[in-house]
Amino acid sequence: MFSSKGLSSFSKEESITFDGKGGFDFMQSVELLAPAKNLESGKAAINYGADAVYIGADRFGARAAAGNSIQDIAELVRYAHLYRANVYVTLNTILYDSELEEAEKLIHQIYEAGADALIIQDLGILMMDLPPIALHASTQTNNFNTERIKFIDSLGFQRIVLARELKLPEIREIRKQTRAELEFFIHGALCVSLSGQCYFSQTITGRSANRGMCSQMCRHPYHLIDGNGQQIALNTHLLSLKDLNNSDNLNDLLEAGITSLKIEGRLKDILYVKNVVSYYRQKLDAILAGNERFSRASAGTTQLSFLPDPERSFNRRSTDYFLHNRSREMINPATPKSIGKEIGPIIALQGNQVQVESVETLSNGDGLCYIVDNQLIGFRADKVTGDWIEVSSTAGLEVGMILYRNYDHQFTRQVENDAAIRKMKVDIRIWEDEKGLVFALLDEDGLETEIRIDNLPEVARDYQLFLKNIQQQFAKDGASVFAVQSVDIQCKQGYFFRMAALNELRRQLFEAHEEKRIQAFAARDFVRTEQPLSFPAQTVDFRENISNHKAEAFYKMHGVDITQKAIEVEKSRPDQLLMTTRYCLKYELGGCPHHQKGGVQLIEPLYLEDKNRKYRLHFDCRQCLMEIRLA
Q: Which residues of 109-120 are buried (b: 16+ CB within 10 A; e: fewer)?
């Protein structure tokens, strides 16, 4: 029989405590947080190992194309709570005055649906009449600067989602100076701009990134022009970052104080979710197994029929960004599209066939691609025989070219066909007392459910047959969420049960316990406790994204003068700041005067240029930041 930790170990209202040196003073649960485009995707994320999911409601989420009804959110919440997992709902856009009443009503609906937390960007929401729901400060609140994060922390947020650009020493320092839980991205697409500080899309296309409608100007190709008008780079994706992959840094993040590890991708398909979530579940479980200071945040395990590999899902190649240090080759200059997994070089061409030196097994229908003249070119593998690939045309292909596979036909089928069930370990005990028979189920979290039969059937003639039948029927877990570890029967005598009756008893026991788990791990009311702290500036401008009167009142209440509201409600300026980024093109090109002395000499000012206009680059070398402005 497995050992039970007990329900008290998993209280959802438990606060995080630290030893004053940036470390934990008790066993800390660690959360793997996954994206959910919709109900189906959210359930898949939980099935494949997520401890929590984040999902958008039908309005006001930072991914306008990923909205969901309150009914679907409520269903997802019940499913998640069955596994002691959480559901967080995103309401992380800035709001207009005309939307405040609707947004407040929606927040109450999200609370009534049982969501565990609300993720917000607009601090005007704090001025609303809110239900007692936990609040998470979205990365869109620009959680990059330690002093700002300390202010956000003082407002009583349960959790702060940190900026992706932070380095490990910065995270450690933030941990020492804050009380809230800390969440950090570990995988997925990267915004090149500091989150919440990108105005490129709004200024050029009228589609606001802070309203969930980003037109992804950073994924466009640009020319790079120097101060003499010389073209340094032509038609190159100079701002298109590779995707984040921190799978080798999970332990470092936990040791630094991160307790929620977040996968990006609310617009990704269900195959991406199943593959990437299960990959990180395995990585994280291996760490938790060898560290007594951390524990898993939810219950149940999943047996897979495929080997997870994030390179086989949507993937622009990978970087760990700034976590350990600044480095070059953070971008994919050829394309913002998925490149996939490297296959190997072409070693021969013959007619319409290509021979590849590859350790990967290729199959008919694979999607392959290569890069030439800074462009990604794709083609289909019509027929594969050994290391020879038959294609419709070999035009453009050359011996020595490196091929990538951005659609793995066999792997996709494996993941599609995998219908794994996440199961929780349970023990079943059956005994007889003076009133009748008791059927009890005890799970791995220490929760127990009992059902009783008072009107017993007739006494069985064959006691051993009774034991055998009841043992076999209650050991069956089939497509349920439970994995029966043992069936212990303590009865003085046997009783005659039809198999259908035993199956019905098992079904009733399982259903009753599922409901008990859902109720036991339901979200608890959260009381936000503020600890007054001054805002880290006396004046703010458009970069605070103030777009409604409640947000304006919030800043004024904290003694801050507002010089300019959000550009969504005020006109942009001729030299409008479009984005601020820690990524630096000077450094990428080898021309940083501080870190790459004696490197490439770049004549400033530098400009990005597309078919419509020029954008001026400004370099704040003291803070190691780059700005892009209208020229």
A: bbbebbbbbbbb
439 and 513 Cβ atoms separated by less than 8 Å: no
Please, where in the chain does CATH 3.20.20.380 lie?
A: 21-190+243-312
491: which residues sit within 8 A by CB, 6+ positions away? Answer: 430, 431, 432, 437, 466, 467
Q: Amino acid identity, residue 524?
A: R
What predicted TM-score, i.e. pTM, was given to this entire model? Answer: 0.93
- The mean-pLDDT minimum among 1-10, 128-137, 447-456, 505-514 falls in 1-10
Q: What percent of the chain has pLDDT over 90?
A: 87
CA distance 46 to 33: 9
Rg, C-alpha atoms of the chain: 28
Inter-CA distances, 242 with 303, 337, 339, 459, 601, Å: 31, 10, 10, 70, 26
Among candidate residues 206, 194, 201, 191, the one with its CA nearest the CA of residue 615: 201
State pLDDT tens for residues 476-522: 999 999 999 999 999 989 999 999 999 999 999 999 999 999 999 99
If phi > 0 it is left, if psi is from -120 to 50 it is alpha, else beta; for residue 374 that is left
Q: How far is CA 25 from the centre of its chain?
A: 27
Look at phi and psi of residue 554 and say left if phi exceeds 0, alpha if psi is from -120 to 50, else beta. alpha
pLDDT for the residue 61? 67
- Those residues whose C-beta lies under 8 Å from the C-beta of residue 50, and which sit 6 or more positions away, are 32, 33, 34, 85, 277, 281, 298
pLDDT of residue 6: 33
How far is 427 from 441, CA to CA, in rounded Å? 6
Rounded Cα distance between 96 and 211, Å, is: 10
pLDDT, tens only, 201-230: 999 999 999 999 999 999 999 999 999 999
**Is the model more confident about 50 or about 594?**
50
- 331-369 pLDDT, tens digit per residue, is 999 999 999 999 999 999 999 999 999 989 999 999 999
Per DSSP, the three-state class of 451 is strand
What confidence tier does 65 reach under pLDDT thresholds 50, 70, 90? low
End-to-end CA distance of the chain: 70
pLDDT tens, 103-156? 999 999 999 999 999 999 999 999 999 999 999 999 999 999 999 999 999 999
Residue 130 — φ and ψ, nearest 5°? -95, 150
CA-CA distance, 168 to 322, in Å (whole number)?
8
- Return the ∠ at Cα 128 (arms to 125 and 133), rounded to 5°: 75
Strands 402-407 and 614-620 come out as: unpaired
Q: CATH number for the 339-417 domain, one of 3.30.565.10, 2.40.10.170, 3.30.70.80, 3.40.50.1110?
A: 2.40.10.170
Sequence length of the chain is 631
Distances in Å between the Cα of 216 and the Cα atoms of 146, 201, 249, 537 are 28, 7, 28, 30
The CATH number of domain 21-190+243-312, selected from 3.30.830.10, 3.20.20.380, 2.115.10.20, 3.40.50.300: 3.20.20.380
Give CA–CA dist 337/444, Å, rounded.
Answer: 43
